[in-house]
Design goal:
By secondary structure, the protein is mainly alpha-helical. 61% of the residues lie in helices and 0% in strands.
């Protein structure tokens, strides 16, 4: 291995280290957020046409949003299912 290849390899390793540091930081924040889910602000100022929506309306809008964004399949089910579990107080993290 010549010097140029070694330098190139070391730069690649440095780049990989920085990438994984960012990923670790992001995951640590997610873990902390999950541990403290009860302090998430629950007031959102939305300007909507109606005061309330049915589950079907929300799921339909969500599916349309996925299609618009070009997402064919979301692994793990709909994110709205998780939202409804939080609304109903049945999400596993609340136990």
């Amino acid at each position: 291995m010549n010097t140029e290849e070694i330098v190139k390899h070391l730069k690649l390793q440095d780049s990989n280290i920085e990438f994984y540091k960012k990923q670790i930081s992001r995951l640590e924040k997610q873990i902390e957020d999950i541990k403290h889910i009860s302090i998430v602000p629950n007031t959102i100022d939305l300007i909507l046409n109606k005061n309330s929506y049915t589950r079907e309306e929300i799921v339909s809008a969500y599916n349309k949003m996925l299609k618009y964004e070009g997402i064919e399949y979301r692994e793990g089910g709909l994110i709205t299912n998780t939202m409804f579990e939080f609304l109903e107080g049945t999400h596993h993290s609340l136990k």
